[in-house]
Amino acid sequence: MTYRGDVLRVRLSGRGGQGLILAGLVLAEAGSREGLHVVQTQSYGPEARLGASKSDVILSREDIAFPGVTEPDVLLCLSRDAFSKYGATAAAGGLRLVDRQVAAEIPVGDALVLPLVDTAQSIGDVIVTNVVALGALVALSGAVSRSSLRDALRGRVKPQLVDLNERALAAGWELGEKAASPILPATSR
């Protein structure tokens, strides 16, 4: 796992409307299902549509004294604006995960670049990019188990969208597993 001690701080960022708040809620609920202490916060202010937005999640084996995330251990950026605003906030040695379309627009340094939007599109709808990204992020970080994540997702999406979202989660998990070997040791989850 990429936990610093007993705590993992995650920032999911992108444009308003990309479903990052839902992704943060799913991750927090999955952590809670595993008995972890969790905090989920969000910021979308005037950027509610198209501007940079974020959802922060803290997962901890111990009590959480401060709910803020200043240096995420895992940072996801799904838009150019989000990378410009949050890209430099990742903790030293942390994982920065960026969509391939963002990397085509601006330099992203040592961030891990994955085809998150393209994968969602190939599944059937770009609307599930958040779930593809969440699957990849969790596969890479070992934040929670795949089954807890899947169960939390099922409880948060409309019944008619469960199948699409489960396919997106599986595709994202596969992307993360394929990318994991060069950067992080294999996790037991």
Mind explaining what this structure looks like?
- The chain is α/β, with parallel strands linked by helices and 189 residues long.
- It is built from seven helices and six strands.
- It has helices spanning 20-33, 80-86, 100-105, 116-123, 129-141, 146-156, 162-183, and strands at 7-15, 37-43, 52-60, 74-77, 95-99, 112-114.
- The protein has a six-stranded mixed beta sheet.
- The radius of gyration is 15 Å and the shape is globular.
- Residues 182-189 have low confidence and may be disordered.
What's the arrangement of secondary structure elements?
Elements: E1 7-15, H1 20-33, E2 37-43, E3 52-60, E4 74-77, H2 80-86, E5 95-99, H3 100-105, E6 112-114, H4 116-123, H5 129-141, H6 146-156, H7 162-183
Parallel strand pairs: 1-4, 4-5, 5-6
Antiparallel strand pairs: 1-3, 2-3
Helix pairs in contact: 1-6, 4-5, 4-7, 5-7, 6-7
